[in-house]
Design a protein that fits this description.
Elements lengths: L1 E2 L4 E2 L4 H32 L9 E3 L3 E7 L4 E10 L7 E6 L5 E5 L10 E9 L5 E11 L6 E10 L9
Length: about 160
């Protein structure tokens, strides 16, 4: 039989080929089983054996309650790297630029278990009633690269003074 790699006749017998194929199947099965077990342990214990960054937020919903119209409410969101690798937050933005203005977020990578803050202002320029806006956080968290924090508030009706 001709061996294309070495340009010569192959000296492998069918029995040798079967042994090599069975070794390959055994090694591939072992590696797949090992990866499956490590992944299961990682998910069950939160040990993060693969050294990936994990973005953890203290809140996923912020309720500002009832606010005055045309006011600015400062908000602070605590973030933590709960994983084993460096967490990079690449972008933080509001879904409505008129209502949510992001002031700061951590520009340097967060080390494992390091905490920081995202600060933004909520402007209540809308009409009276219930309002909900979102803040989008983009990071290198492999499990969920973009996270959304919902901000809701109710704008108090303006008191109308009666003119006599």
């Amino acid at each position: 039989m001709y061996d294309a790699c070495h340009g010569e006749e192959s000296r492998m017998t069918p029995r040798t080929r079967i042994k090599n194929a069975s070794r390959f199947v055994f090694v591939a099965s072992f590696l797949f089983f090992s990866w499956t077990v490590l992944n299961a342990v990682d998910r069950l214990t939160g040990a993060n054996l693969f050294r990936e960054p994990v973005l953890q937020l203290d809140l996923t919903r912020i309720d500002l309650g009832t606010v005055m119209p045309n006011s600015v409410v400062p908000c602070v969101l605590n973030v933590r790297n709960g994983g084993g690798g460096k967490l990079v937050i690449s972008a933080v933005r509001g879904t409505c630029d008129a209502c949510i203005r992001v002031r700061s977020w951590p520009m340097e990578p967060l080390q494992p278990n390091e905490q920081s803050k995202i600060t933004f202002d909520v402007s209540t320029n809308a009409n009276e009633g219930a309002v909900e806006r979102r803040v989008l956080i983009v990071s290198n968290d492999w499990g969920s690269p973009s996270r959304v924090v919902k901000c809701s508030w109710t704008i108090m009706p303006e008191s109308r003074s009666s003119s006599d």
